[in-house]
Amino acid sequence: MKRIEIHDLVNAALLMLALALCGYFALQWIGTAGDTWEEGFFNSEKVDTIDDEELAARAAEVDVVGSRPPNEVSVIVGNGSEGRDGLAGRASERLALFGYGMIAPANKDGDPEDDSFIYYADGYRLDAVRVALLLGFEEDLVQPLLDRSTGISTDGADVVVVLGNSAPI
Question: Which domains, and CATH codes, for the chain?
Answer without folding.
Answer: 52-163 (3.30.70.2390)
